[in-house]
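Entry:
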Amino acid sequence: MVDKEFNWENTRQLSPLQIVLAFAIPSVIAFAGFHIVLPALVQRGVPVLIAWSLIASIMLACLVLTAVIFMQREAKSLNITVMARMCLKKLSAKQWLIYSAVMIVGLALAGGASQLVQPFMNLLNLDVPKHMPFFLDPSINPMQDAPEVVSPGYLLKGKIILLPLFFIALLLNILAEELYFRAWMLPKMAKYGNLGWILNGTFFALYHIFQFWLFPTILVGSLIWACVVYYSKSIVPAFVGHFIGNFLLTFIGLSYLILG
């Protein structure tokens, strides 16, 4: 009989070297995609927003597929359901209340950490590459700045094609980050206790080296999501919070710029 419960301690734990490699490999791929392939496409005349969404979707889809394959195999070896191995455990109303409060506080702290981004950039002499989209540039306010500043050479107004492209990219982003880094990796770091989720959150923030100038904000959010998943043993609350914070708000804002 297949068990519907997943005991994290039963899964094969990762060694320190395996943890580093599990984060480093997708980090290197992402860096190459956004700092080698992306500028090459932009130089060939592909609009930044289209090139970015296509590259992100391809890389993230591969990461989702990798995580699903890993967890399917492991679920079979542990004699548990794939849903259980994906850490899709249901939570009680009380747990939802607690973890929702933690995530709200976390989002507020991440918002506060955004004030540290510019000093962080100044300290390390970091600049946002010109081939990066406007929403990754903290110096751009898309609701106030001129359209040609927000998206030079490719004004957003009326570009309906961007909506499905970004819908797919943003959705894959959430799936990849929750399934690979938290559902697959975090249980395999359980033997390290609290240090495990701290390392998971920190390494996940470093995975975003392709946009390192945003590290202060990403680090706070990463630690919050890792903490919630570690204690709840479920990616569901983190997925919901991630969906609201990184998907809905971004997609609604983009839709306003395109259709407004």
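The mean pLDDT is 93.
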